[in-house]
Amino acid sequence: MGFPHPIHPKENPVLSRHFGEADARTYAGWVQRGGYRALEKALGMTREQVIEEVKASGLRGRGGAGFPAGVKWGFMPKQKTRPHYLCCNADESEPGTFKDREIMRWTPHALIEGCAIAAYAIQAEQVYIYIRGEFTEPLRVMQAALDEAYAKGVVGANAMGKGVRIDLTIHRGAGAYICGEETALMNSIEGKRGNPRIRPPFPAAVGVFGCPTTINNVETLSSVPHVIEKGGAWYKGLSLSNPKSTGTKLFSICGTIARPGNYEVTMGFPLKDLLYDVAGGMRPGHKLKAVIPGGSSVPILTAAEADETLLDYEGCVAKGTMLGSGGMIVLDDATDMVYQVMRLAKFYAHESCAQCTQCREGTAWTVKILQRLLNGEGRKEDLDLLLDLAEQMTGRTICVLSDSCAAPVVSAIKKFPDEFAAYLRRGRTAAAT
Amino acid sequence: MSDLVKLTIEGHEVEVPAGTSVLEAAKLVGVLVPHYCYHPGLPVAGSCRMCLVDIEKSPKPQPSCATPVAPGMVVKVHSDQAEAARRAVLEFLLINHPLDCPICDKAGECSLQDYTEQEGRASGRYADYAKRYNPVEDFGPDILYVPNRCVLCTRCVRFMEDVAGEPTLNVEERGDRAHIGVFEGRQLDHPWSGNVVDLCPVGSLLSKDFLHKARVWDFDRTSSICPGCTQGCNVVLETRENTVVRIKPRPNPAVNRWWMCDHGRLSYAWLNRSDRIEAPLVLREGRLAPAGWDQALARAAEVVRSAQGSWVALVAPGASCEALEAAARLLKAHGGSGAFRVAEGAEAPLPGVPDLALRKERAPNVNGALTAGFSRDWAGAVDAAKRAALVLALDEDLSGVPQPLTSGKLIYIGTVLPEAARTAAVVLPSANMAEEEGTFENLRGLRQRYAQAKTPPGMARPAAWILGAILEAAGSPAGATA
Question: Which terminus of chain B is more exposed, N or C, with fewer CB under 10 A?
Fold first, then answer.
């Protein structure tokens, strides 16, 4: 990425090429960089051709689940009997993830272009860009860019002069993690409490305001213009390992690392190279202990596992974790794993929407057990209890927040048993720090 | 047959209409899947996760309330995995629960108690952490909220929003800090809001009227009809030591579904009045004196036989169809006429249910009185009573009528003795609706039976019996049987 560190030779900057260039935020600057050519091209294609192109590219959802974007668009009814909606999920709130923020800060028109192409493909009346409440700067930048896009006729009643109506609205969240969950996000747009909904029905049948809706992540939609402009086949060719994972991916690297930031690499890039080469490696005198590769909700990788991991959807699954959002939390040997896991669980306990019993009570209980452990008052049976609670919190609820709380706890207990045992033995002083 | 789906639940084959939930289908084969947030009268929330069951080919347990039946589905309610999932939900629900059943009004009819007894762990593992504590809140004129007992099933929230059509309650806060709240500046004072107390599966929403009044296992329960208005909601009269303590709705999809209004729910004190007429009274030397039933009925028959001239009846639309018809028969034999009047109040519909409202006319049997042939011309009947040879008053309080009511003879049948009836020739003590069996005809012409819930005081008898006895004693040609 171009900001704040210069582009590393091993990076493949497709989305992040213009990060750091203030000029790219303006309409003129964006057009000068080749912007809106893809939208013009898409509006000259049929809706089916656009969807087929995206299907051919193998582009998968960058929000965490990795569902093929073109297939998702294909779920929308072909015959439009009710309004269709597109939601852009810009509620980036997964701890450790900050890639969408940079896309919106530096290349707002890329997102607007992607949204416009998607809206055309799925016949959406209206695009809602749901931006996280805390994102004040991205909100400002996006709104300015959207106003300019309307003023230039790129979107609106007669988008690009092609007689197609494309409308976008920016909706600001109020600061709930759960509103990043797609059905909670829809409730929030409707003005309701941001509670996830039971599926089925799925959003393509019953989404925002009860109408067919597609919801995509910022990074997914921002990739669409590249797919359209350079072709699905070109995008599909961007793959270093498994052909099911294509394109480039932005990784937000944070934690105890020399150069935290966003880095864009081709799918299948080795995790080891990303950490030690692109992101500058560990702080002097420290060794890697663990990596949480896909935002805080995924199982933790040990240093040894991380060394062998290839960064794509399949590569992460092979190591027992998930690519998730690409928010990579790096933990070195000075890290107290028990404390880190408690801190993560505390986040989920705070953010549980309180609908499902397992999540509402289980997340808070998990925190209490971990805190007691940290205070040196842990009991032998506590670890089994944590694992048992985690089992009952996994796959039992409406959404996966509860699973997300359980995953790091389980993997930490299994992969770093010594640290938990040390707390059980000697209490507070046993911390690795 | 195409709209029927065949599936297997706990080894029982059952055929149900497509679209039925697994939970409802299970009820049909006698399997009750434990649940909190689900209620047949409310939109599905699917959030308590108590109704998780195992469905073959599905790796994870599924919420039976939100899972529609599918052909060939095999459902296991008591598999190890499903029971473990539900046991965990119960444990989670109890970690912050105060376990104050001994002082909780809901004890004995609490789903948390019942399911824990059925499927819960013998002891919890939430060893020695402090429990969440929130003070009791006043939600409205009759409702208290005890947040510590709440399982956040949101039945109350959904009732107010989707059935009462007046969103008043919400879930405040997130995580384990969440609790039910009232929107700012509002209170739970909708005319149908008392239903949230019935809906609450635990002791979280309580009626102030019933607070600490009785233990529910001491009750006798009697199927009855609400006497509050012409709607005819089906109810259960709950009595303890011959006193009506509480009225609860009794589900009837054709009349009131699962609901009843607060007016009906809270207007039961009159059923327990202590200033009742306990013995028949006969006028002797200008004073009403107690008498036996034989004496009093003989005197009444004598009055009836000797009354030469017009007859008028003043009846109450709260009397049973049987009493009203017996009165009508007595009148008819002698060419008399009768009328009734009915108290009125504001109509209060329940928007979520068609044709359900607290009706303007606040008596249960207006239609029964009309069917029996009584008119609404109260003023005309009162005027005619002045000159009548015989006036028969049936459970009418006679308030506001001119004194003296008549120059003829008055036979008064009622529960309490109004001033205007002190000049009656005979006073016959009748049972109130909780003390007799009978039927009411509601505003849609539906005749519904109510059963006797308590014994009448002293020598009081059902009005239908009294009128039948008079007919018999007076030798009516169309004599009714007692």
Answer: N
